[in-house]
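Researcher: Going back to the complex we discussed earlier. I've cleaned up the inputs and rechecked each line, so this should be the final set. Can you rerun the prediction on the complete assembly and write out the structure?
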Amino acid sequence: MLLTGLLYGVALLIALLAVGKLRSHKVRQCVLLLASYALYLTWGVWFGAVLLASTVMNFLVGRWLKRQPTVAVLWAGLAFNLALLAVFKYIPGIAVSIPVASLQKFSHLALPLGISFWTFQAMSYLLDLYRGEELDPSFVEFALYMAFFPVTISGPICRMPEMLPQFRSEERVSRHDIGLGLCRIATGVLMMQAAQLLGKGILGGEGINGGFDHLTRWSGLDVWCLAFGYGLQLFFDFAGYSHVAIGAAQVLGFTVPENFARPFASTTPSIFWTRWHMLLSFWIRDYVFLPLAVLRREMWWRNLALVISMVLFGLWHKGSILFVLWGSYQGILLVLHRQLQALQRRLKWEPPAAIWTPISWVVTITLIIAGWTLFRANSLPQATQMLAAVASPASYVDHVLPRSLYLLVVGLALAYAAVLFAVNWLNRWGTDPAMSRSEIVQVMVRERWVWIAPMWAAASLLVVTMMERQSGGANVFMYRLF
Amino acid sequence: MKVFLFLASVVISAAAFVTFDYFYTATILGSAVSGGPHGFCFARDPVRAFAFQPNCSCIRPWLGNSYEFNTNSLGFRDEHVRDVPATGARPRVLILGDSAPEGMTAWQDSFIGRVAAKFPQYEFLNGSVEGYSPSNYLNTARKLIDDGIEFDEAIVFIDLSDAQDESAFFHDVDSSGAVATAKQKLTKGNWYSSLRRNINDHLLLSNDVFEFFERNLIRLGWYHLDLGHGGNEFDLERSAWTYRKVSDSDPYETGYAPLGLEGGIAREKAKMDLLWQELARRNIPISVVVYPWPAQLAHDSVDSRQVRIWREWCDGKCRRFITLFPAFFAVKEQCPRTQPGCWYLSHFIFGDTHYNSAGDAIVAGVIGNSLTEKPVSKHQSQVSSRDSAERPKGPVRSMEHPHGQS
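Model: Rerun complete. Updated structure for the full complex:
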């Protein structure tokens, strides 16, 4: 993890120097592309070859599609990308679980880093071209779109219409952008550290990972703690990485779309899915759900399209029955929410927001948390056993998980909530004329990182030292696994 | 205003860090292992002042780690609790020494444990106890002889701290050789020692931050490590006598009063003479092993005064004289120029003068080579324990729990 971070930092520095010193956008593109490939190749030459092959193939299909925008050409391109995903991502998993001789040769194939992300970017490019978007990237521009290092490993999933004008811009990077970008990187690093701490726990082996991987019996309370803890861990990890990616891009003068927007503040499942891994969510909405939904007008079909879309959302992570179940569960939640909304409209029932919103928030978050059990469980029997414990009132009298994990999960959740409140207050103070008259408040609002930096350093040191005390288990960015 | 905000934030952040660390440490230490039903297996002893309880099993903590500790029916550290018969089918090797051969780590990692595993044709009786010195090496051997326990060779690990223990810590209570320990314990300390000890004891996370810098400074060859437990680990009074002057007037443990350094060394030799005579009467060969502390590797030479004293003493008496100084100085020389202090980090328990697993492996290797070169054989002539009746016997006066002594 440290080496990855160092290499990432070196690539960022080289790219920053190139972007800062070079005027020509074409030369900039070449330097950024070289830096991106150099970084990608450090994870494996074979990975780089797969990325390059996919880039060349998609670029050629794109050219073909521009000349001949037919469904057949589009499907040829999509089939290529889906085949790539199948070969590297899904068949190895199937080969491990199904002992068919012809599949065994795939079982040891390593998953090229970020393949799910850059393959979806390639597919969105083809779909946009088919829909008539005016996109005319050069090969270098397209290759950079596929390999742009801040987002290659784990997104956020970008789209060509957003990136192409930025690749071609000759504007210099402002110091303000560099400062903001670095702050976001710092925020992201701290969040990722918090995720690792949740995984490992305060005491060795007493983290979320141990709770899922080493226990064989759970009480209802344990399952809630593990599921909520895992949701937090996943959020800190992926949202933290997204901060780093967006920050790194910002340092280089690029604006990459946001991927998370306070998902735990969502008051309905529909809102949650516009705040959690938003870019994949929007991708699925734009390229799967909407085309499917317009095929028939009946409500049942729209609901089915929603469930199918969410199943695909689940399968994007991994081809396993648990992700199919998790996707179906999320799809059913969305459908139920729609039904409830329709019922409210039909009955013309508008409950007071002061009561309804907190209830809705609690129900939403509880249901989303329950779903993380399916997402993280190691097997279907384990997930079944855990959910059975949740449903059994008798199991709530005891707990197997160590107290330290309960404390850690609650402590980090409260700390995160406190940070959100603090940010809200600061933003409010910044716009409140009465408050902003005070000089100290003005400086606190304007120059946040002057006083946040020592707090960040202390928090970071705290997390790092606590993790260093524990042995074993490499620190792995979780979404790299998808 | 910016500077004020920054400084205020630094103070608040540091305070928050320390507060969190304090409670975190209390939680961690609260759940740390205790000795178990038998405490830490120590017992008062009428002759040696302190010893291990026979057939005892416990968990012993040592500098942040803990390990399983077992004694046999003789009250000697062993792999498992077991009865040791008076005679054995295999040749028996009696090990005498203090904490180093006792092993402040799991049995299988300790160098005696390693040697025992490599030479199953021998039975090792490890009579080492932390804090012992030649007076008690002698008393332990006599006790075995008195109890009729047979052994075929005694290997004595003479420790650098034995000189201070003999001059200032132990004194004979009568002519029988029974010992009592000094009451006075003076430790030199300054504000940093005190701060460092408090951090070490109450703030684990802050301690890790300090340790990070200390490790890197040591790696760079800055031999200073004061964790507040008796001074600089690289220049402790207990081991400094081989390369600098020590106080003959200060009492234990900052000095060597009442006997003074030379008096302590003379007493060491005298006790070892008695041990040799006791064994020689029974045709049991004696061997001596000397080994360096971090201080010797940092400030002394391969031909340290400790090595010269015991090589000279061994002349004509010992079956084997083994010095581990060359092996450890060779390790030191292998450190790259940019990291001259790497030997300490790689071969010693951090914050301690004891060897870690890698250091123990070196000791085990050298001892093993010697045992291969000159195997231990079962000898026939053992003089009856009745002979020991000639020795004067006497009462016990002072006893002290030695935990923390080396």
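Model: Worth noting: Chain B has one domain: 42-188+233-381.
Researcher: Good, that matches what I expected from the previous run.
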